[in-house]
Amino acid sequence: MGRLTILSFLKAQYAKHPPVEKVDLTGKTVLVIGANAGLGFEATKHFATMKPGRLILACRSQSKGQAALQRLRTETSCTTAELWIVDLAEFDSVKRFADKFEREGGRLDILLANAAVLLPTYQRSKDGWETCLQVNCLSIPLLCLLLLPQMVRTAQEHSTLPRIVVVASEVHYFAKIENDVLESPAILETLGSAEFCTPKMMGARYFVTKLLIILFVRALNARIAASTPLVVNTVNPGYCYSNIRDSFSGVTAVMDRIMEVLVALPTEKGSRQLVWAAIGQQENPDKLRGEYISLQRVEEVSDWILSPEGARTQDRIWDELVGILEKVDPRVVPTITRYLS
């Protein structure tokens, strides 16, 4: 596609959505981050009908997660689902989650990184980062890298092809990283600074984080050898009814509500895209390596991502990200050294 127009957006919103993809997940472990509500919960419900050996609902809130787990069991009769807690706004929580998985998780066949936040104003996390940037663009990559060894081990021990799916969005086509940010010595640190996060910049923050997460997945995929049995991709669920926009207020909330009524997809329909990215294209899953998926097919990312400047920025951000995350967890660099080129 390369770019998104109003016409192409509307065509996608009104397009016919095929039934959800189904495969037999017997013996396999599926981990869904952000599984207690919205797209994450609906995708988890779909996985629950496929006989997973283990279905892990990773949620930030114990109470909301427990309620979602009970609802899942009631609506699907799945007996292999369990609740784990992780707060992506805290690096220590991500590290504890990875530690727990290393001890108790066993195999990992599908990692669906669905969690994200949309914040209209600057909020500083406990770790000193703008919270939206940390949750969407730092903690998700940290978790992917910390769980990567288990996924490669799963492939080797069970002769499977695990997948990491990170939820992106078509809004990345509208995202722009300001020139003064690109010219700064540290892109991510600049984006996360209180000085940069003015109300105007925060208004576009969610769009930028979705651009950044696509750059991360493309950079990660570029460093995974073709012989390594691991598929990583991003997926666009479309514009759906979602609680991610609950922080909206005033005119923005009114306009969003009008948009929902006019064009929003039911959350369940959007979740089919997430499921397809995780289990679709069974005849040749390698075709999904590093790709951006929308409407159950591979689509071209934005022209800027594909440009020389986009490629340079992708590599810069990867290097910066590794530098940030290695200070958070010393396992990051050994994992990259061993499993990535």
From TrEMBL:
Presence of the UniProt keyword Oxidoreductase in the record: yes
UniProt keywords, alphabetically: Oxidoreductase
Organism superkingdom: Eukaryota
Molecular function terms, GO-annotated: oxidoreductase activity
Keyword check for Oxidoreductase: yes
Name of the protein in its database record: NAD(P)-binding protein
Species annotation: Mycena belliarum
